[in-house]
Amino acid sequence: MAHGSNPQKEPLFTGSFLVLLACSMILQTGMGVFFLFPLYVLDIGGSKADIGILMGAMSLAAVCGRPMVSELVDRIGRKPSLVIASLLLMLVSVIHLFIDGSINQAFPLLLVLRLMFGVGLALCVVASLTMAADLVPASRLTEGIGYFGITPLVGIALGPVVAEGMVHQWGFNAIFFIGLAFFIAALLSLMPLRDRFTPAAGTVPGNSKFFQVLRIPIVWRMSVICLCFGLAFAAHSSFVAPFAQKTRYPFHPILRPIPDRRYWRGYCAAILSTDLARYGLCRLPWSWAGLDSFV
């Protein structure tokens, strides 16, 4: 067969898509820093129940806010939504720096901040994912979304590793300083991006459309799968840091205030190995996408 008969693929890694990948990884790294937040709660006298309530509030806000967030992303555009998400996460980080006192005094404010963080998380995920779908060629949508899905995992893996050493040096306020730095960097990285989204003529965004989509069989089936994954991930992310601290190695007394570095290095390596698997799976047809969930 002649070489000229093979259709050339549309370019996937355009400048805009690469900028979005970088922005997503920076944002998720900032969020990954907050994996050490449960240790902060323990440090100010909180219990495991307090950790569960605060982390659960964040997840609840992220879920319940999705209909409103989805409407906002369609109404004002993807890039403005990402800007709002970055600013909200920056505000949450700054307010944390002024919290003083025990868990009994700080708990109401911490609860409000976790709710705000959950809304920022939801806005970030929805806006970045829809922008990725806008930037990726339709003929390579599965491949492009697969690549895009790698960057949040890299960020989640790097966040605790980056923050852990600095928390040891400067205390738990380092979590919020580092998170703030990453959110500022994400906001700056957004500046070159152009929002290609334009609402279709005659369409009016609304929450009703969000729930109408759930009536599509494949959508609600995938939603159930994601719900099961989300429940497991929420439990893991809430208590992985206290677990790592509890099971630290006794011959490393210098690391006692925080989880052992080798735990987080192993955690980072495990996620990065998952990313390598996703690199291959994202090239498979969409009907094989379930394999990604098992990985």
Helix-strand layout with pairing:
Blueprint: H1 15-33, H2 37-43, H3 48-64, H4 66-76, H5 78-96, H6 103-135, H7 141-170, H8 173-190, H9 207-213, H10 217-246, H11 261-281, H12 290-294
Q: How would you portray this structure in words?
A:
With 295 residues, this protein is mainly α. The protein has one domain: Up-down Bundle (Growth Hormone, Chain: A), CATH 1.20.1250. It contains twelve helices and no strands.
Quick structural gist:
The chain is mainly α and 295 residues long. The chain is built from twelve helices and no strands.
- Mean pLDDT, all residues: 77
CATH architecture designation: Up-down Bundle
- Uncertain regions spanning at least 5 consecutive residues: 1-6, 249-260, 285-295
Main sheet makeup: none
Strand content: under 5%
Through-space gap between termini: 37 Å
* CATH fold category name: Growth Hormone, Chain: A
Instruction: Enumerate how many helices there are, as a single number.
Output: 12
Q: What class do helices, strands and sheet pairing give?
A: mainly alpha
- The CATH class assignment is Mainly Alpha
**What level of helicity do the residues show?**
over 70%
In total, how many domains does the architecture comprise?
Answer: 1
> Which assembly state applies to the chains in this document?
single chain
So what's the overall shape?
globular
Report the C-alpha radius of gyration, rounded.
20 Å
